[in-house]
Amino acid sequence: MSVPDVAVVILNFNGKAFLEKFLPGVLQHSVDHKIYVADNASTDDSVAFLRAHFPQVNIILNTENSGYAKGYNTALKKIKADYYVLLNSDVEVTSNWIEPVISLMHNDKKIAACQPKLLDFNTKELFEYAGASGGFIDTYGYPFCRGRIFNSLEKDNNQYNNATEVFWATGACLFVNAKAFWQVDGLDDDYFAHMEEIDLCWRLKNVGYSVYVQPASVIYHVGGGTLNKLSSRKTFLNFRNNLITLTKNHNPSFLFVKIFYRMVLDGIAAFKFLLAAQPNHFWAVIRAHFAYYYLLPQTLSKRKKLKQQAGFKFNASFIYTGNIVFDHFLKGKKKFSELEKENFLS
After folding, report:
1. Which letter does DSSP use for residue 121 in this model?
2. d(CA 49, CA 56)
3. pLDDT in tens, 67-124
4. How many CA atoms lie within 13 A of 78 on its CB side?
5. What is the dihedral of CA 35, 205, 213, 10, to 10 degrees?
6. Domain 6-221 part of CATH 3.90.550.10
């Protein structure tokens, strides 16, 4: 079997401090692979720093800060490889972090996307919010992970160390088959950031691919390197893009009933922000809903185009049929292992 060509691609925007801290480790533990930094028109001295200190790194200069989705699409069009590794700049990798994932994917061509196990850089015994040990969604589109439900982070006791199929793989460190990536037209440029990896994974599933986690590979993620966790902009993007993802990719059965129900739950979340003296986040949810309505004709057009792809079939496998909001906040389920296995679609 031929050795696959792997390109590690770090998207950067004003992230000199992260590059200085984490890029040496990426180079140390990725010696057999090409390393790229795609710069999203940084206004700090990131590019000059790279040229001075890391001449072995390939630099791609994007002309604007177009976010995660379009930024990566623009850069990846310039890279020839069998597999892309979309790696956040705020990630500490470990030895042998690439090979277990690529081996898994290369031995099963149906696996189009995969992630390693994500642990928290600042509290290394905890899973990290952005992906933990593989992602899922519930029937209303709310994302959660093996090792993280909403803000409840589990301690890593090797309880989720098996390589297994999941619903989505994290964008913090996303291994993706390049051919499959372009088969579904890459990331959705209009997302800017947040939820774009879930949308991509769902589109890949809808044309017959699968998504996996390979915990034999371990990385440590800082999180919030692009948009702070307290940013109302982050709240806006998460709420808007979640609704768009559900509308684009869900099968037609009860879709708009679920959208209506989501709107109600989002409204409750908005008023919780208001009661918590966070008016910026309240308005972010309201603006997200109006943006969703405004983009609905475009979203339905994208849905129609997706359905025309060869081999397309709405794929609901590994969706959790319960309501994760109800299970977590009312029934007190804090751990992934507490969710009933029979509630995950096969």
Report:
1. S
2. 13
3. 999 999 999 999 999 999 999 999 999 999 999 999 999 999 999 999 999 999 999 9
4. 13
5. 20
6. yes
In the numeric block, which tokens belong to residue 305? 């185009």
Q: What is the pTM of this model?
A: 0.96
Cα–Cα nearest to 81, from 177, 201, 183, 171:
177
- pLDDT tens string 122-181: 999 999 999 999 999 999 999 999 999 999 999 999 999 999 999 999 999 999 999 999
Domain ranges of the chain: 6-221, 232-313
CA contacts within 13 A on the Cβ side of 79? 32
Return the structure tokens found at 15.
């992230």
DSSP secondary structure letter of residue 150:
T
CA-to-CA distance for 346 and 338, rounded, in angstroms?
Answer: 18
Q: And the tokens for 258?
A: 């679920």
Query: Using CA atoms, how far apart are residues 345 and 253, in angstroms rounded to an integer?
Result: 15
The two three-digit tokens of residue 227, written as one number: 């948009």
The CA-atom distances, in angstroms, between 187 and each of 74, 144, 194 are 10, 20, 11
143-145 sheet: strands from edge to edge: 135-137, 143-145, 148-149, 152-153
Q: Which of 54, 49, 51 minimizes the C-alpha distance to 34?
A: 54
Query: How many Å separate Cα 253 from the centre of its chain?
Result: 26
Q: DSSP 3-state assignment of 319?
A: coil
